[in-house]
């Protein structure tokens, strides 16, 4: 892999990790805005916390090569659920924008699965 491209990929992975943790922690802490929004589309408080745990765990696991694939899978699942929730909440523009991190997570999954068990990005 080209050195400059590898740096871009690593930066994207760390941004995705930070975004996942930053989006997951308010759900775990049952922040009113997160709880009110997700309750309004049918999520129970327990489901909100579970989504936050999955999202934050995925973000943390993205930080290490050996756990990057499972981290990307968890982050991807949580990002997709969050995007769908935003669509259901009626904010189509933001929902479409929220699919960008999901798309990046899919790229990380494919890149990590090719390198899983080997040294690499």
Describe the structure.
This protein has 121 residues and is mainly α. It has helices spanning 3-28, 32-40, 45-61, 68-88, 92-115. The protein has one domain (3-115). The chain contains 5 helices and no strands. The protein is elongated, with a radius of gyration of 15 Å. It starts with a helix and ends in a 6-residue tail after the last helix. The model has no long low-confidence stretch (mean pLDDT 90).
Topology:
Layout: H1 3-28, H2 32-40, H3 45-61, H4 68-88, H5 92-115
- The total tally of domains equals 1
Biggest pleated-sheet summary:
none
Termini separation comes to: 9 Å
What's the mean pLDDT score? 90
Total number of β-strand segments? Answer: 0
Annotation field: number of helices = 5
DSSP helix fraction = over 70%
SSE pattern, N- to C-terminal: HHHHH
Taken as a percent bin, the fraction of beta residues is under 5%
The assembly state of the depicted protein chains is: single chain
- Class based on secondary structure composition and strand pairing: mainly alpha
Apparent shape? elongated
Outline of the structure:
This protein is an all-alpha fold. The chain contains five helices and no strands. Helix 3 (45-61) runs antiparallel to helix 4.
Give a quick set of tags describing it.
121 residues; mainly alpha; 5 helices; 80% helix; elongated
């Amino acid at each position: 892999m080209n050195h400059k491209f590898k740096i871009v990929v690593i930066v994207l992975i760390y941004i995705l990790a930070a975004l996942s943790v930053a989006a997951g922690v308010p759900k775990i802490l049952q922040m009113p805005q997160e709880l009110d929004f997700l309750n309004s589309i049918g999520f129970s408080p327990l489901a909100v916390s579970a989504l936050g745990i999955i999202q934050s765990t995925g973000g943390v696991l993205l930080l290490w090569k050996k756990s990057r694939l499972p981290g990307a899978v968890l982050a991807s699942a949580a990002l997709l659920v969050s995007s769908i929730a935003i669509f259901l909440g009626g904010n189509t523009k933001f929902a479409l924008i929220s699919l960008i991190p999901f798309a990046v997570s899919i790229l990380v999954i494919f890149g990590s699965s090719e390198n899983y068990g080997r040294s690499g990005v």
